[in-house]
Design brief:
The structure is a homodimer of 251-residue chains.
Chain A (H helix, E strand, L loop, with lengths): L24 E2 L11 E2 L3 H10 L1 E5 L4 E3 L7 E7 L2 E6 L5 E7 L4 E2 L2 E2 L2 E2 L2 E4 L3 E7 H10 L1 H26 L3 H15 L9 E3 L4 H8 L3 H13 L3 E5 L2 E4 L2 H7 L4
Antiparallel strand pairs in A: 1-2, 3-12, 4-11, 5-8, 5-12, 6-7, 6-11, 9-10, 13-15, 14-15
The structure holds a DNA duplex (30 and 30 nucleotides).
DNA sequence: CGCTCTCTTGAAGGTACTCAATACTAGTGG
DNA sequence: CCACTAGTATTGAGTACCTTCAAGAGAGCG
């Protein structure tokens, strides 16, 4: 696994803008809209970001950046799935987030990345230099507000994740995870109600705080109760969403 | 317990600015400083916030706002401790955050508060109308960046919380909680190494995802191992910080 | 000073974890 | 195209931990 930032001299540059544009998607905190996520970047802001960014593509299972290394870029995912993780002192790995199209990654503190990021699928993303971004932020208050919304959105997701992970039995956590994934992950042209998992059982386990075996057993339970059907390790059909919600503790 | 926003006609207005000023405290994401939290508001920004805000004080165990109600204010805590919580469908209560001086509360989505907030101690805070705040944000990019830093800080805290809560045994969670509290909660003039808990066992349990009894037992374990000493239900002396860190899994 | 609420402690039961072995998938090379 | 292989996923048995239910001790408030 190679760190793409080390390849700065010869990055894999994807084709020009047309099909892809920078995009930030989140629910605004203002009382406009119906509470659903909307595009937060104006065309002008997209243009400004395109001007300072580079569209890069990476293969699956590629290290994007490492925890603790100098944070020079922020990434805006165009397509594909990535994950951010942190290594705990005892050797356990905790996945802090899965990131999809229209998400941002590259959170840093004191100029250093707080997590390790890697791709789970082939990915296309805008790579935005932080110093150039900061220069834009100084001048464009509307862009700042868009980012504020996105961060609020992320914060809320993280709090929701903490809830999922703290209470609930194993099968409830997995049920919650499947429902969440169905909502956020745009499926690659498949059968309706069929969920394609871009991550391994190990990733799922490290995300919801269970052992790999428990995830497997939990899926078995959900299948036994008729809520889902395992069609393959990475393919799960949601048979009964209502039942799944009930098993997830969402009553 | 009364909702202070319903008392808008006659709020408890605290004395003029001198001793208290709006303050936002967080670690910036830029590579300046030593990685520690710093004040993010300039004097001019503090003045601007004072101009649109009202300094309010509330008694202990007072409802500040309810989940789902219209989000008209953001609060900047000056002194005291508050908590935000969410009620789960199954009746469990999950505490999303404890908030101290220099923290912000009032996160909303689509104009509605996402959690219920209540005071744990007597509290003094700036109550900032969101519409007036948005007007300032439109014009002051630097303030936006301050808020971005604060949100990053919160997001990181929330992710750390999710980690604490997902892995780890009961005594490790409690040890982590005590160490975290020592770091963020300015102690009310007490003995060095002595921790005053502003929240009940029930609150702690709902925060770290354990039962009240398990929290109690975990404290017993930490005491048995010589890491802490319970001097009272709300007073805990940290005898051996290194040992506590080891028990917390921070090695 | 007594009451109530909070906190602690005890015992039984259930759930997830660890260790271990087997089945399967997918990627590789012949 | 097929066989092989390494990694991934599932299943089983035993153990350790947390939760629940229950009762008692302590603190704080009127």
């Amino acid at each position: 696994m190679k760190d793409v930032e080390d390849l700065a001299a010869a990055p894999a540059v994807a084709p020009p803008p047309p099909p892809y544009r920078p995009s930030i998607f989140a629910a605004p905190f203002q009382k406009v809209g119906d509470g659903h996520a909307v595009e937060l970047l104006s065309v002008a802001e997209q243009e400004a970001l395109i001007a300072i960014s580079q569209l890069v593509s990476m293969r699956r299972h590629t290290l994007i950046y490492s925890e603790g290394s100098e944070a020079r870029f922020v990434y805006n995912v165009v397509s594909g799935v990535a994950e951010t993780s942190q290594l705990l002192p005892n050797g356990d790995r905790h996945i802090t987030a899965f990131l999809f199209a229209r998400d941002l990654l590259g959170l840093s503190v004191d100029g250093r990345y707080v997590a390790t990021a890697r791709t789970l699928t082939p990915i296309v993303a805008y790579r935005i230099p932080v110093d150039a971004l900061e220069a834009i932020l100084e001048r464009d208050p509307r862009l700042d507000i868009g980012l504020l919304c996105k961060l609020c959105h992320e914060l809320r997701a993280s709090q929701h994740h903490a809830i999922t992970v703290s209470k609930h039995e194993a099968h409830a956590r997995v049920a919650n995870f499947l429902l969440w994934l169905e909502g956020v992950h745009v499926q690659p042209a498949g059968v309706a109600g069929e969920l394609t998992l871009p991550m391994s059982r190990h990733d799922v386990a490290d995300y919801i705080g269970l052992s790999v075996e428990s995830v497997s057993r939990a899926l078995h339970v959900l299948e036994d109760k008729g809520a889902v059907l395992r069609k393959g390790p990475r393919t799960i059909e949601l048979l009964d969403a209502a039942k799944l919600r009930k098993l997830a503790g969402q009553i």
